[in-house]
Amino acid sequence: MDGEYTERPLIIAGGAGGSAGPHGAVQYTTTDASLSPNGKDGYQSTANVGNGGTNGNGGNRGYRLTGNNVPGGGAGFRGDGVKSSDNRFEPRPTAAVAVKRNNQENVNPPGSGGTYNYNGVPYDGGFGGGGSGARNAPGGAGGYSGGGGANLDGHSGGGGSFKDGERVGNYRIEANNIGAGEVRIEYLGESLIINQEIRDEQTS
């Protein structure tokens, strides 16, 4: 992001979701980071659960009929993910936290992953606002908009990606499945800074 305490991000790279399918099954169309600003739905999503976030909001939690072992949704830039509904164990689940936090009750720092504890075993969302996992159910990925949580033995949605087309040029956005997961943002030149200085002079 440019400047201090800015309201306008330059680039946000969406994270990838995860798979808990039987026999190592994968579904990259669901779990790959979204190349649009909106997060992807988890598999399988319905009208009220597992939906990816839109417009910078967090993703919805996953689904299980009993309400147990439910993963959380990923955080967006402006909205927290929806936390797990499984409150059987202490500590209770927490939501993945947005960068521009809008939930003052959330005590975790901006960008924190959601947390879930299954009988003493943590399934935390980790870096970048990932939704908490659950036993055999992955949480939604963080991104500009958060990905949706998975159902049991399912696949969670990738997070949305964002670039400011007015201030970022010569860019390429892609997702692949080669090697370990990573986010790579490369600095390509001085043009962005120079153009910003020109605009500042014109408005002063």
Notes on the protein architecture:
By secondary structure, the protein is low in regular secondary structure. The chain has one domain (11-204). 8% of the residues lie in helices and 4% in strands. The protein is built from two helices and four strands; from the N terminus they run E-H-E-E-E-H. Strands 1-4 form a two-stranded antiparallel sheet. Strands 2-3 form a two-stranded antiparallel ribbon. A hairpin with a 2-residue loop joins strand 2 and strand 3 (121-122). The chain is globular. The protein starts with 10 loop residues before the first strand and ends with a helix. Residues 50-61, 70-79, 123-162 have a biased composition (Gly residues). Residues 1-167 are annotated as: Disordered. Residues 80-91 have a biased composition (Basic and acidic residues).
